[in-house]
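Checklist before submission:
- one chain only
- standard amino acids only
- sequence pasted in full

Submission:
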Amino acid sequence: MGWLRRRVLRPLRQRLLYRETMSRLVAVRQDLDRRADQDRRALYRLKRREDWEAFRTERLDALRAMLRLPASADRDWRLVRTVDSGDVRIDCGHYAGRFGLRVTANRYRPATAAVGPGVLVAHSHHTPKEHGELQALGHELARSGCTVLIPDLGGHGERRQHPFDGTTPGDTSYRPERQDYYFRHLHGMALDLVDESLAGWMVGDLAAGLDLLDDDPSVDSSRIAVIGAVAGGGDLAAMLGAIDPRVSCLVPFNISGHRFVSDPDGSRCPPNASRDGFVPWVLLGAMAPRRLLVAQEFTWRPDKERLWSALQRVYDWYGGTDQLAAVSGKGHISGSPPRNSHCVHVGAFHREALYPELARFLDLPAPPQVTSDDPVHAPEALESAGGADLGSLAQALSPRLGSQPYQAAPRHGSPPPKRHTEPPRVVVLTRVRPAAWRRLHEQTVKRLRKAGVQLHFLEPAGRSDRGTEQDRRGRLSQAALWTAAERMRGMHPFSNVVDELIPMVRFHGRRSPCVLWGDSGLSPAFPAPEQPRPRGVSCPAADPFPALAALDIARRMPDGACGLVLRGGLGSWREVLALSPRIASDSVPPGVGLDQDWEARIEALAPLPVRRVGWPGEPEDPDPAALAEWILGCFPAKSGG
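Returned file contents:
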């Protein structure tokens, strides 16, 4: 029997769970495609420029509501050092950005004082502002008379929020700059907690950089360009260009589809994008009649792309098709260089094709001369913080936690009184395998069964037992991709799954008295690893979902259970702000941290008896007999109506 379980039943179960998760993700992505196609077809039903502008305004208003950018303010540029690079001067400093945090940046200027165009660069999610390609871009444009500002995006470079900075002895198993990329989805979860977004944080910092350029006396405010690098920078640049009329020229890389990608990196799949219709072609079309240069890292055929035909239709209404252009690289992403034009931000091959069009759009006397991508200066030479306190994202968001008054959730209708004819039950909500859960609580289960209590397991949708902990709950898991896709639809897996579980709990509560047990299977205390771990994801992922879902179900169904057991989960929402790589992304619904914390939620359930296990100050594994007796004491003395 053991052989049958190991070789047949368990692999079959894993395949079924994985298939369920994949089928949900595929269904959500198909819905994203369907909505995007509806929006694109709506464009071709528009007949006049005025119709398009009404169509565009509605969607850009929704984008502004999602980004929640504050009003322009004094950016307080603080110069730390100036690096003389021959005919180019590099100012290293920082300015005030979103949430009051400082934004480190390098500003490239011509050595001779003259008024010229301004260029703001949004780097990719791969490396920060000191990369060789960005240094080359800054030098080349500055020699042509431009002032170029390249800031560090939130969580990158000198603004990194994680402790893995490469200073730990023996720490050679990973690259610190890649940790910035790996932690982006954790920044997104922390921002979701207070109903903000990673896209809003990064676009806000870029908008502050645009303020800085606009106020610069050496910058011609009518000639400001925004360049978005490959791998994420183009999406941020497109959002900024769509809502800020000061951007006279936009150069977004790698935006070719009719919808955003479903990616765990929250800056590339902004929340509500599909629901509210601010999809890529709408953002790019909103640039009309301003200048738009669509750039691609690899081979791209505009005449074969639906995005390009939509943009041409929009620009035709303004009679400005000469303000629209496209450049591309060569080869494909699956190939190897040099036959395929891979780059980190904007490579030399791409700059060579880009500069003639950019010179035309910015009225430069001649296209910049392309140089090597080799860095001119060492990264430490371009550091901009100068020992200043740049601020912590956790500190900036922490005061907002639990700031809203407690609001009782909408309650589902309570079932009519009914005589219970079946034995009492314990309904277990967990994403741990039932067999493993029974082994973990073996003594408690034996005592409950001896008393005639039945156990029933509710397995939340979206769980997959396939692969490692990282595959199931980490940054690249199907759960993370599902969460990102649902966020673009204006929803979240947590709410969807809880809505599916409520009828199941109601069914059990009608048949017999039941105690609801939400079990994450892990302790709420998540100590940081002693040594940095490659990619920040090689430790098991925590799963606060079961405990949080059980608490939410109890709030919404006050008569659905006669007792509540919470094991594991989180001791406080502030643990999410600690950027622990062990927290599953589908366990933190947007804005949940604005409500009261766990203690207040539990107190609001009174007089429902609640037992917490493994929480701070309580034993991880309590006495099985005491726990079983507590559960038995929750059941009514007589099961009747």
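Reviewer check: The first strand starts at residue 78 and ends at 85.
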